[in-house]
Write a structure and sequence with these properties.
The protein has about 120 residues and is mainly alpha-helical. The chain starts with a helix and ends with a helix.
């Protein structure tokens, strides 16, 4: 990857992570552009922008979403993980209360990055 491509990728990632963070004028439902998600999926897991966001999940779902006390998340479909997180934001029953609190702490763009990170992890 040349320097120009790498720079565009990093700027896209920074913009994606920043969507909805600290700005009342930025809608929290803004999505990460597909080309940014595609570029993110090609990055190493160490550099993946969703990793630090997903760190909150490691306590219950295991480091990198593997071998935790609850469901493993590694290797799951990014689309399905994102949809499950969005559903958990809407839940009203007590069984998923802790997940509702966690899911509500992120913007849609951040949830997409978290889902993309876990989808990229292998080794279940």
């Amino acid at each position: 990857m040349n320097v120009s491509t790498h720079r565009r990728l990093l700027l896209g990632i920074v913009a994606a992570v920043a969507i909805g963070v600290g700005s009342a004028t930025t809608p929290s439902s803004a999505a990460v552009p597909p080309e940014t998600l595609a570029a993110v999926s090609a990055t190493s897991l160490v550099q993946h922008p969703g990793k630090i966001l997903a760190g909150n999940c490691f306590q219950c779902h295991g480091t990198n979403g593997i071998n935790g006390q609850f469901d493993s998340l590694a290797g799951e479909s990014a689309t399905e993980l994102y949809q499950e997180l969005k559903e958990m934001q809407r839940k009203t029953d007590g069984d998923e209360a802790i997940m509702k609190v966690h899911a509500l702490g992120y913007t849609d763009a951040q949830l997409q990055l978290i889902a993309a990170y876990f989808a990229a992890v292998t080794g279940r």
